[in-house]
Amino acid sequence: MIIFKMKKLLFVVVALGVFLQTANAQDQIIYTSKNLPKQDTTWVFKPKNYTSKEKTAVIFLLHGYGGNYKQWDNIMNAQKYADEYNVIIVCPDGLFSSWYINSPAKKDSQFESFFFDELYPDIKRRYAVDDRSIFISGLSMGGHGALHLFIKKPELFTSAGSTSGGVMLRDFSAKYGLSALLGNPNKEDKIWDDYSVVPNIYKLQSTNKPFIFDCGSEDFFYAYNNQLKQKADSLKLNATYISQPGAHNKAYWTKSIKQQFEFFQKQMIK
After folding, report:
1. What domain range is 51 assigned to?
2. CA 222 to CA 215: how far, in whole Å?
């Protein structure tokens, strides 16, 4: 059943478990998924000149631990970026602490499956997406998530990024809800490597697709991003690493996301 109200531009798609509200160029979609413990709210920012007749690049932006789908807009003014770079920006909700993985311990926390099986194809159905220009990035937990998903299915993305990413999970085993997601393993258990970016980055050797990651020198994730840089270099991956002054905060991400968008713009096929 579809209900349409002209005054509020409100669409309710009951059969699909999806709620869509449109306000100007910004859409709000609410997903009900068997893969998630609760509904997921996603903001989509379309560029001001968007038309369904013209294919448009897409950038998925994943928020950090404890944040939600509004975090990126609070940092960067997502509509401004959508207009400036002529891209569709998609900001899903990582449900506070999903780490964007399929949890082996929580059967209703399968964000990776939700992303690939539901969110990604739904965005392509709803919007005129340019398949040649699909990107993903994120901050902190979302930086981990973006590279994790890129490693899983690089064929679905043109490029990926991470800013202040939590790319090595073992040393944070007692924090950020990680133990609950992974089944409360010992710090020595192999599962920490199974779900971390650094030990799995070698899987990108089969592709020459570019990716970018950065971290501030005062960030508690800085040493781990340096490890990722060393690993990427040893594997001769097509990686760009930016090490610069900054901490794990909004001021840093306001600067770094601009750098990532500039990087992605260079990969967009005109």
Report:
1. 2-267
2. 6
Find the radius of gyration of the CA atoms of the chain.
18
How many structural domains compose the chain?
1
No. of H helices and E strands in the chain? Answer: 9, 11
In degrees to the nearest 10, what's the CA dihedral of 225, 57, 256, 42? -90
Give the number of other CB atoms < 10 A from CB of residue 183: 12
For residue 196, the domain's CATH number is 3.40.50.1820
Phi, psi values for residue 61, rounded to 5°: -120, 120
Per-residue pLDDT of the chain (270 residues; tens, 9 = 90+): 222 222 233 333 433 456 666 545 689 999 999 999 999 999 999 999 999 999 999 999 999 999 999 999 999 999 999 999 999 999 999 999 999 999 999 999 999 999 999 999 999 999 999 999 999 999 999 999 999 999 999 999 999 999 999 999 999 999 999 999 999 999 999 999 999 999 999 999 999 999 999 999 999 999 999 999 999 999 999 999 999 999 999 999 999 999 999 999 999 976
Structure token digits, residue 54:
């013209």
